[in-house]
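## Example record

The block below lists the input lines for one assembly entry, exactly as stored, with component labels intact.
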Amino acid sequence: MKWLVVLISVLLSTSSAWAKPLVVGITLHPYYSYVSQIVGDKAEILPLISSGFNPHSYELQPSDLKRLLEMDVLVLNGIGHDEFASHALEGLDLPNLHVVYANKDLPLLSSGRGSNTYNPHTFVSIDAAIRQIYTITAELGRLDPENAAYFQANALRYARELRGLKNRYQASIMDLDLTGVRIASTHNAYGYFLQEFGIGVDTVIEPAHGVEPNASQLQNTIDRIKAANIQVLFTELNMENRYVDVIEQATGIGIFHFSHMTHGDYDAELVMREMEHNLQTLVLALTKAAGG
Amino acid sequence: MLNSSHHTTRNEALGFDAGTSSEFIETVRPDDGRLETLWVWLFIAAVLAIGAIGISVRTETHVHVPSVELNPVEQQLLTELSIAIQEIEFVTGDVGDWPDIDQLIMAQIPPFTHQSQTWRAIEKGCYLLVSAVGMHGHFMLDLNEEARILFHESPIPMISECHDLSHWHRLDTLK
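Predicted structure tokens for the full assembly:
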């Protein structure tokens, strides 16, 4: 009898170790980094689509649907950058899948295309990233209460690392006189990122992401850049925009490349690495524009 | 006279006896479509009535959400406060024993760490932005019961408690 009590107590004490870890799905590269940093080795991360595809124009494939069925949780941007997943979920009955809308607690910026659409590039920003990391952490903690404290500790550590990174570069920017600096961007991806440094975007060139302006739009843009005395154009790394060279030649504007963070392999360190690249680029661009 | 003569002649022609059927009257409604107009109007009225009932049944109550224009500095503060709500909850364990301003600064939670802003705790878990650069309104963070971020555009009187904030805009529900 005594051995039976010992066996039961051993089984109960190790039940948490035997519990199946959550399978957390993600749709975009930054969410892979967030979830990796939050869950550590306490959950499995499963990207919904293979790396290397453009999420703006992706259509879900049968193999993606198979992965969707394996997930306990799916973390979504949910405001326009992973519509391939949002549309698929609308037509599927998946009662066991818990969907986490990472941006549900974030004050959003308008997309500029009507009152009910928002700029979905919240992941190209440190503070907006931290807000999403906390929302994901709280939701995962509710689904896996045994690991909730572990997730929270990881989220706090990761948020402080990101904040520390921002503070290092912010000190350089605060020393600059930016009163006369005017900024343009090729597409509307950097609003959240620039906002956290108190910087606004004066003009956005592309009619939509990846859609090049036509000849008359390009001429209007060149005229606008000259008239507004815009000195800096932020464009996207890993995307060849021939029209950017035309603008550079016609206006003499300084071209700088930000990472969009949705290219390459899924990587837990991607956000930290590419965020630092963007911060270095921002400091360089503003220093040159301010005449430093 | 002429009509009477004509009437008699006609009855005779039809084989009636004018002397024995003098009070027989038959009313015949003209088949000229006059009632069709009535039926069409009744049908239109019925369609409109059914439509009105359907609209009233399906109408959702519209809650008027006050619009608040925030400048980029205020928008950034709103983001930081939305982060602070969750971070304070993680740090304190959501037990209601809310930290004071010095503890928030010690924990390095923005925006309380910003040197350009001065925050004051009105009561436990209720924080008022007393002064800041680049803002046209006042912000308040209230963590008691349901966490909320509040904004007041015009100058505010001295506040000593966080219960009666009916003139403040709640920002965390605005999108």
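Residues 98 and 125 of chain B are 5 Å apart (CA to CA). The first helix of chain B runs from residue 2 to 14.
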